[in-house]
Amino acid sequence: MNEIIHTIIDRAYMIKSEAGALKLSTEAKLYCSSLSLNNLKELSKEDQETTLELIWVWNLVYSYASWYIKFLAAKNLGAIDENLKEKVSKAFEVFTSGENIFHSNQIDFKPHSEMIEAANKFELKLITIS
Fold this sequence. Notes:
Elements: H1 2-12, H2 18-34, H3 45-77, H4 84-96, H5 99-102, H6 113-129
Helix pairs in contact: 1-3, 1-6, 2-3, 3-6, 4-6
């Protein structure tokens, strides 16, 4: 699983333009919609875990790409809030805990420490390039 996480996040590092972020955002949204939560009970325990991990990671990539697009728009308008990075960081704390995706679907899923570590590295990289 660690390999999958880093492969997806490495692709997300390629966000350097609004066009790249839009493409990645669209891809992540499509990928997440194809990984349905509806059929989880039909899968083996191992396949359930893998599916949840992939949904978590692709949602993370989607969130980061979407944030980057919004950041660029705010930057172009000269409307960047001084506390923007702190607000984003707090939002991703909730996100990386898995609360916003799985809690609302009554699914008990907590991301592995490697997933959180990769997400934190990616968040730092994205904030730095912005």
